[in-house]
């Protein structure tokens, strides 16, 4: 038997498109994932601002390898993670819940799989300045270079 489910196809396309841009977010869930070569923190974010994206969620990874720890530290610092735990090299998944901050995201495809890339972070207090800058960036006319194609 066939059933008509309005929006089934279009919602699937939206999910594949990923969430891209600058958002004020809250950490909704956090998991540490053991992996032999690349352990990582998997974080589920809920968008708080801008208005058109409120309550959307997305999942991103922060790798815990020696080369990638700088990015995890950057995230923890900007989102206001407990400095005592940070100084003890500890990440408590429960302490991550409800932390707020700004994240710039993009959607990447690697080896045929899609990932939400967490490109940069800032404290929640910087949201007003960064949201205005993101809007200006979108509204600015694109400079296509001179006639030489440079």
Could you describe the 3D structure shown?
The chain is an alpha+beta fold. The protein has a single domain (19-139), classed as OB fold (Dihydrolipoamide Acetyltransferase, E2P), CATH 2.40.50. Helix content is 28%, strand content 35%. The chain has five helices and five strands. The protein has helices at 8-17, 69-78, 83-87, 93-96, 127-139, and strands at residues 21-33, 40-49, 57-63, 100-110, 113-123. A five-stranded antiparallel beta sheet has the order 3-2-1-4-5. Strand 1 and strand 2 form a beta hairpin. The longest helix has 13 residues, at 127-139. The N and C termini lie far apart (58 Å). Residues 12-16 and 144-150 have low confidence and may be disordered.
Number of strands: 5
Residue runs with pLDDT of under 50 for 5 or more positions: 12-16, 144-150
CATH class equals Mainly Beta
Give the percentage of residues in beta strands. 25-35%
When the domains are counted, the total is 1
C-alpha Rg (nearest Å):
18 Å
CATH second-level architecture: Beta Barrel
Query: What is the share of helical residues?
Result: 25-40%
Enter the CATH topology name: OB fold (Dihydrolipoamide Acetyltransferase, E2P)
Largest sheet: 5 strands, antiparallel
Q: Total number of helical segments?
A: 5
The helix/strand order is HEEEHHHEEH
Terminal CA distance reads 58 Å
Order of strands in the sheet with most strands: 3-2-1-4-5
